[in-house]
Sequence to fold (472 residues):
Amino acid sequence: MSGDILKTLNANLWDADPELWELIKKEKGRQVNGLEMIASENFTTLPVLQCLSSCLHNKYSEGLPGQRLFSVVLRGNEYIDQVEILAQKRSLEAFNLDPEKWGVNVQPYSGSPANLAVYTGVVEPHGRIMGLDLPDGGHLTHGFFTPTKKISATSIFFESMPYKVNPETGLIDYDKLLYSARVFRPKIIIAGVSCYSRALDYKRFREICDEVGAYLFSDMAHISGLVAAGVTPSPFEYSDIVSTTTHKSLRGPRAGVIFFRKGVRSVNAKGEKTLYDLESRINQAVFPGLQGGPHNNTIAAIATAMKATKTPEFVSYAKQIVANAARLSDGLLSKGYKVVTGGTEVHMLLLDLRSVGLTGAKGEYILEEIQIACNKNTVPGDKSALNPSGIRLGTPALTTRGLVEKDIDQVVEFIDRGLKLAKEISAKSGPKLTEFKKAVHENEEFAKKVAALRDEVVKFSNAFPLPGYPEY
Ligand SMILES: Cc1ncc(COP(=O)(O)O)c(C=O)c1O
Fold:
């Protein structure tokens, strides 16, 4: 009897659920056959995938290591505690942090819950936060709202005021940020971006925070792999709190991590010290404030991903991400495209398609049709966030597959040919996206050209291996 039960429970997915298995295999095929240029995506490693599907998934462990006793005393956490402590230690080591000065919480389920936990812990309800506006390159969780609607919970439960980039240069306008911060007096200023191709000036952020008495909270979600490898400026020297996702350039599992300062925050003229109280505020905001049981399989995967950042291979990988992005930018510029801010210092760039008479939606659509994944994005000066004029292109995932500069030159060719084709189609279809999409598929001449280019991209992509399980 027990043998029969095990037989059922241990059936392979392909036997237990062929319908779902087919879908997973199709997604794997899509990943292998295309060029993944969504700047926030990556292909994680086999050890990370192995942790994610391990027995650690089965265990409840509400609370922190050694204190798993919030609602009931949770037994059986002796190994889970060690896994979480290892993840904490390695997270601090990955960014060369002194455990006397920094603590870390590795339990947030992802980047958005991590950010909400920071505000929940540090800012009172309807307290004030300032982040880069979403259309200017910030993230939803930096307080996004529109003129008619509060979109993110971070603008529903907190009062947010955005700061902006200069519409001419595309660079963050730090002077205007200071001006607004003096008026708004936020509790937190967020230094973090989802679409910005330049290194942030953390020192300047610190000075502004000091002037208005705000905490500096850096959200390094996109760039944390580059920070760990030391190929972009680190936010830690100047920040009070740092959050990150672990699945972007860091190449770990889909999760979030929060780092917070410990020890002395300031000393007054009389020599009296004020201590940071971020540790308990943030830990309690994560659990029990916002989350329940931590995802221990993911925490193990964080541990192994953080360990990997210390290897020479990871450092070369991060350097190559940046070199590939620079090559991509140079290649597109040499073909006459406009890159916002004139280039990139990180893992991504923002291509302004106004100069070639295309919308971001058409650019995104044609590239998707030829198996190049990217996303449309507003560019500085766009009138409507609903009709963005740019596309965001990133190199972390391609670099994981082993592409180097000469391969990026070929990618530039594909993008250029795709966008030229889009112009040709758009000239015939007119401005509407629906008509454009129809022409891509229903005009025989265009459909043939798109298919031919897609075949070339698929053939090219197939030459580059993907980490993980071969079939899924
Ligand atoms: C800067 C930044 N912060 C936070 C997040 C949110 O992460 P998640 O999608 O894991 O919730 C993102 C996601 O793209 C991001 O770019």
Notes: The radius of gyration is 24 Å. The longest helix spans residues 405-429. The chain has 18 helices and 15 strands.
